[in-house]
Design brief:
single chain; 341 residues; alpha/beta; Rossmann fold; five-stranded parallel beta sheet; globular
Length: 341
Amino acid sequence: MLLEVSTPLAEAHDLALVDLDGVAYRGPQPIPHAAESLVAARASGMGLVFVTNNASREPESVAAQLSDLGIPAEPADVMTAAQAAAMVLADLVAPGARVLVVGGAGLLTAVRHAGFVVVESADDQPDAVVQGFSPELGWAQLAEAAYAVQRGALHVVSNRDLTLPNERGFAPGNGALVNAVVAATRGEPVSAGKPGPTMFRLAVERAGAKRPLVIGDRLDTDLAGARAADYPGLHVLTGVSSARDAVLAEVGERPSLLGVDLRCLLEPHPAPVVGDDGWWTCGDSAARVRDGKLDLGRSTAGAANVSIDLVRSACAAVWTARDAGEPVDADSVPDMPVHES
């Protein structure tokens, strides 16, 4: 269920684990209100660690991009799936093992820093293959990975995101490339990135935080990862998953908090409450499930946008009904384009 937080989120939590694509920026473009909100949250005492499933880039490159967008960051403020993958490898293979790296510079650096010997071919008899996203990857590299896995190498991947949001739309993500190797080998790799909890827990441990908050735009990675790590998750509607997606989310992907964008870090978070009549209310918005269908107290038919409080109310109504075993017709949940100036 959604949480009630009576103070601004930036004061209630000592660390934010912030996703990048779809939260802080979209490709090379900033997301409106992200920079000033994160700067203000940090000024309120909230630490920031930027946690990304993108394994192709060095932490220095990520930090430089954030700084250029008005979000001052150091490499130590960045936790990448490449770093997490190298740590997972360290638990699974011996120090100094041979590793075939299929990915970008960030993954190469992380594997080398972890003390492994990088090889370039399946013929070098690698003990493991580690795979991460890089826009330069082609058939030849994927084929080498498949050959090595077929010969017994462990297959570790940075993440399995099927899509990668950018300024032009949704491009194939690392998961799409991983699936090419999976199709050839019929094996399942070990994934280090979200939605697994590894990166989040490593980042919290490194920061020494006590009250972390995961912030993301994707239910299936960011928010599922928050659930897996047992940290509260804030879903912002600036990226992949929509308000309607949140209302229909399965238990393991549900956020604990909902906001339009990162300005919500500077505000309390109200939680819906239910009345004797079955209506869930939040602010001046209300929703309920009746006869297996979502009923909104404020109609969205023909509306250009709805309030975030209506989305919160709808989440509470649908989640409660489904958890009680009551089926809810997904077609009764409308698109809910939320916009707040």
